[in-house]
Amino acid sequence: MVRRILLGSQLRRLREARAITREAAGYSIRASESKISRMELGRVSFKERDVADLLTLYGINDPYERDALLGLVREANIAGWWHGYGDVLPPWFQTYIGLEESASVIRIFDVQFIPGLLQTEEYTRAICSLGHPAGTTEEIERRVDMRRERQKLLVSERAPRILAVVDEVAVRRRIAGPRGMRAQLEYLLEISERPNVTLHVLPLEFTGYPAAGGYPFTMLSFPEPDIGDVVYVEQLTGAMYIDKREETAQYGKAMEKLCSDSLTPAKTVERLRNILRDT
User: Fold this and answer.
1) pLDDT for 178-213, tens place per residue?
2) Is residue 224 within 8 Å of 244, Cβ to Cβ?
3) pTM of the predicted model as reported, rounded to 2 decimal places
């Protein structure tokens, strides 16, 4: 997904540098103006032939420059590991995983559940069972396996920096039962010691209205300077992907406010230990 966005932004710059309209670009590859727009936003897959024709139209004849961009097409079309879970993974969430895999910073605010990247296997199983009561044991285990694959990102060589703000209600809700919640709390204490993970708990005693209206969201930032932040907001039957800079900037401010309203990482550890003693 990120490679598509990156390739699309480069194609847009090349087109604009030659003052070529989207309509003319679309005509050159036997497509519509709207398809060029979707390509430049990284919202469709790319055909190598189409990109080669566009590069010719844009006057890119240097073989090294062409090979680099066409190589990006091939990389963008490689299926990610998550496509193997298409039977239990909705299409709108596959897009998110592609973005998550490429992010350098992931900022999360959740009010109901422990964020997926920070869940134990038992907690994940309880969540999946609640969310899919008609699911077979095999289906539930497939969903658990998929989340475990996602969590490998945290210990990979390209592990992103995670900043999570979790409402204390989510930490105290015994979704996985007393034993499962003890294991989950112990894991949160363990993972919060990692240098790339910062955890805040929004305490029960906080009486103000949470930033962002109390709605959970995830904000993804990328190492490529050409790619702006993306905010992911999940709904019951779909999700929104927000990428307009003026809107993502508001979510950035909301996250800063949430962090300031929450317990510090040190105080968060203290609170988690207290909850663990009572669980």
Assistant:
1) 999 999 999 999 999 999 999 999 999 998 888 888
2) no
3) 0.85
